[in-house]
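quick one before i forget lol
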Amino acid sequence: MKTNEISGSTLAYLGDAVWSLYVREYLVEKGYNRANDLQTKSVRFVSAKAQSSFYHKLLDEGFFLADELDIFKRGRNYKSDSVPKNTDVTTYRTSTGFEAVLGYWYVEKKNDRLNECWDKVRTFVEV
């Protein structure tokens, strides 16, 4: 796979899967094992509002490199046919851009960047 041949929405699709796995492994390692607890806790990481917040915090810290910001824009600017009922368009698009960056790191095998991001985000959320 070549990142420049993959759409922003497809990178976001991959990024969503990667992020979900990070979150699920983390919660299981923390000792959560009831489905309701896992679902409730995971929302703090995977909701559009949470991901949009993570993006803005990381951006304020200067975390993203120029090429990563370009990928973010590709994901953010993708015009989806639908937006979840519980969030606004801007928040949803920001979270899609964040997921696109995660997908970019995955495709490019930049596991160090994925791990750096995850390590920072974990400090933003109390579980």
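fyi The chain has a mean pLDDT of 93.
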